[in-house]
Amino acid sequence: MLNGDGCPSKILAIKDAVEAVHGRWKLQIVLSLGTGGKRFNEISKEVGGITDKMLSKELKALEANKLIQREVIDGFPPVVAYSMTPHGASLQKLMESLYQWGMEHRKEVIGK
Amino acid sequence: MLNGDGCPSKILAIKDAVEAVHGRWKLQIVLSLGTGGKRFNEISKEVGGITDKMLSKELKALEANKLIQREVIDGFPPVVAYSMTPHGASLQKLMESLYQWGMEHRKEVIGK
């Protein structure tokens, strides 16, 4: 990859992957849903500091990116639950690679 | 990772990794240097559309992040060359993972 050609379609694919997890909240929402489907308020509690407006915006973006799915569970009142899609679950391996490299990077740059 | 705990230090490491490659130009500069050390103008030619001011800013950031190194080669006039550090070269595996997942993601979301 690094010593291959920097052809546009490769760069585009890498950029799309980085964009899918970039940003202050996406990672934390994905990690929260990684432990199982949750309701809006449950996610909100786990992702400290996020406003309801921001959480609903981020959930919509993750849904549009097919990383999570939204389900209305019948009841009185009906309940909305969010969970990872199979595509979303495929983030597991990528996040592991990001985590490993990130730890190395922190050691290299800030020494811890 | 996904179904593990979303503990702050893990999130921080992932965020640092994403930040190190996020942005319009960093990837293209890294891919350019991935094929061997280069001078400023050579990088500028390969990374289409970048201004000199932006390129020098991005090179400084990549240097501060210890991903590239800057070397002054004696001569008349002296020449400045940039190359990947060993830490920078370690991006190879991460970018491969980003590329693979990015291709899947593009197929899933836009069908190509």
TrEMBL record, chains A, B:
One family name in Pfam for this protein: HxlR
Transmembrane regions: none
GO molecular function terms listed in the Swiss-Prot or TrEMBL record: DNA binding
Keywords of this entry: DNA-binding, Transcription, Transcription regulation
Entry-linked InterPro entries: HTH_HxlR (IPR002577), WH-like_DNA-bd_sf (IPR036388), WH_DNA-bd_sf (IPR036390)
Highest rank taxon of the organism: Bacteria
Gene3D superfamilies, per the entry: Winged helix-like DNA-binding domain superfamily/Winged helix DNA-binding domain (1.10.10.10)
HTH hxlR-type domain span: 7-110
Protein name: HxlR family transcriptional regulator
